[in-house]
Amino acid sequence: MAASELSAQLWKERELLELLLFKLEEEQLLLTAGKSRWISHATREVEQVMERMRSVGLARTVEVATLAEEWGISPDSSLRELAVAAPDGIWSDIFSSHLAAMTELTGQIAEVRDTNERLLREAARSTQETINGLAGGAGDPGVYGAGGESRPGASTARLFDTEA
Questions:
Q1: Distance CA 66, CA 138 (A)
Q2: What pLDDT is stored for residue 158 in this prediction?
Q3: Alpha carbon of 80 to those of 63, 64, 98: distances in Å?
Q4: Which residues lie below 8 Å from residue 68, measured CB to CB, with a gap of 6+?
Q5: Strands (E) located in the chain
Q6: How far apart are CA 50 and CA 21, in angstroms?
Q7: Would you give the end-to-end CA distance of the chain in angstroms?
Q8: The pTM is what?
Q9: pLDDT tens string 115-129
Q10: Nearest-5° Cα angle at 24, 19 to 30
Q11: Which of 62, 76, 115, 136 falls between 20 and 30 A from 122, CA-CA?
């Protein structure tokens, strides 16, 4: 039965979404801990999960088309449309549950991804300011004001954390 195959495919996709969320949170932990040495590894792992998701997404599209044909609806129907068109109540509930779980996971993924992007931008800006400061004071970032704006400061002693 095509509905069983689609449900199995959706489980695979949900597991990959959970793995992606884990990898993004792992990346976030590295960023907040200042462990930039491992960021490239974490990013590569995120990319590997994304590649697997593309393959699983393609397989899901095939399963949806097969089931849609069986149920007499459009082959490019969404998961929500399949849940509504399900001939008996159990498949409607199953597909609705998959949809709710996947929607929640994608929301969490977007939130963590946005935070990671912000942390990466901050790290890049900090690195650039440090490099500028080491280049003889040219483009000295100075100090930060209470609102986070950069203010010119004295180019005196600098303190570097060598253990990070």
A1: 64
A2: 61
A3: 15, 11, 10
A4: 74, 75, 76, 77, 82, 85
A5: 143-144, 150-151
A6: 11
A7: 56
A8: 0.75
A9: 999 998 888 888 788
A10: 130
A11: 136
